[in-house]
């Protein structure tokens, strides 16, 4: 279930970042390409946060 949520989160952030970054004239279409690894990194951070919360909860 968590992988589905993170995939949707990653896709949503990539689309949003691509739209926002491509609107900046100095970045342009490079922002579209940059949004892909940024989206992946944000999804990875969300996964690490989830795993940390799960680990802390299991030790209680």
Please explain how this structure is put together.
The protein has two helices and no strands. Helix 1 packs antiparallel against helix 2 (30-59). It is mostly helical. It is elongated and about 50 Å long.
In DSSP terms (H or I, runs of 4 or more residues), the helix count works out at: 2
Helix and strand string, N-terminal first? HH
**Outline:** elongated
What is the distance, rounded to the nearest whole angstrom, between the alpha carbons of the first and last residues?
23 Å
Largest sheet at a glance? none
The helix content, as a percent range, equals over 70%
For the secondary structure, the number of strands is 0
Radius of gyration, whole Å: 15 Å
What proportion of the residues form beta strands (DSSP E)? under 5%
| Unreliable spans | none
Question: Class by helix and strand content?
Answer: mainly alpha
* Rounded average pLDDT: 92
Helix/strand layout:
Layout: H1 2-22, H2 30-59
Care to give the gist of this entry?
With 60 residues, this protein is an all-alpha fold. It is 85% helix and 0% strand.
Features:
60 residues; mainly alpha
